[in-house]
Write a structure and sequence with these properties.
By secondary structure, this protein is mostly helical. It has 20 helices and no strands. The chain is globular.
Length: 440
Amino acid sequence: MEKNKHYIIFWLGQSVSQLGSAMTAFALTIWAYQRTQSAMTVSLMTFCSYVPYILVSIFVGGFIDRHSKKMILIISDSVAALLTVGVFIQITRNNLSIEQIYVVNAIIGFANAFQSPAASVVTGTLIPDGQYKKASGLQSFSSNLTMVVSPMLAGMITGFAGLPFVLVADLLSFLFCIVTLVTIKTDPLISNDEVKKNNNKKSGNLKDSILFLKNEKGLLYIMISLAIINFFSRLTYENILSPMILSRSGNDIKALSVVSGVLGAGGIIGGIMVLGGRGKSNPLKLLYVSAGLSFLFGDLTMGVGQNLSVWLLAGIAASVPIPFVMAGQTMILYKFIPQNMQGSIFALRNAIHSSTIPLGILLGGYLADYVFEPFMESDHLIADLLKNVVGSGAGSGMAVMFLCTGILGSISCIVGYKNNHIRRLADRLEVDGEMGSHTL
């Protein structure tokens, strides 16, 4: 019961903080695109946050294992809050520039390299035994609820009071998060001897993590396959979706907000389904089959869609399977990674997962602006054929990109599912032990 209480408080604080950050990110994305009308600008905003995140994540794991997770979370969240204050000052003075947002995102990426694995360790510590799948469902529920609510709140606050008040709301969410962190015990319950041993371990953490993954090849291949999935996802859904919707809807921010909200609603539905799941679940199928269905039906439908109704259907198809993907991964990772190495392994995992994202972001923006959009404006025979599928006009090139990622992403999921090392790892997982009937 005590673990339940502390985990719920921790989850609530992190969820509210994510809501504030998502509102700011959405508002700044719209602000930037309306001023530049460039998909590459939006891509670079995300690119600047991921590069430092990846580089720092490679080396930061040992530091996280040796130090207070609570303090790491407080400091990293405080850095983000100070940056929000800086953006607030610049926007109220009418001095905010795209370049300044790039710098802010880069620093936030640096801070997130510490925050993310520390939060993962705390989550693993506070989750009641055998409830990893249910906890993953709860996290998916909150993150997707944020996806639904943040565009609406950001749009509403911006419309009535202006962008600076979105930043104020973000700062209030930070304060709430800090209060929840202060009130709970977040660090693992380990002995004094273990603390001394971890504190005296000044080197070799990255080497030990690499050696661990070398011995657990199934975990390594899961991380690599998810990096490939992330690449295809970043090419389109998590990169050029906003520019495509805006281009094909005549810069209708309401349409984009509704699509973003439906993406979150689908995730909420999936999260509830994971939370309410009973009986045995194959984590391998949860991960790869669900991801494949998301690509196959979500991306392809989004590509052929030319109106809000079809985009909403595509959003549901793409987002409902995602909580199952996260649940499958969570069940495997927490089962096989020792608690005293979770900071190191999760940090390295984050680096591997995200290693393909900068390339996907830049390539997605470049392909949209300089390859697919110009191609679909041409009189090429293939372009004429594709127009029968995706339509014509602004945004049709980006729609073709969705068709490509739908096909290639599905293939990558099949390859991952068939990997022998991954299948052997899944066979070792005691599903019955992970799927107890207790509730959080």
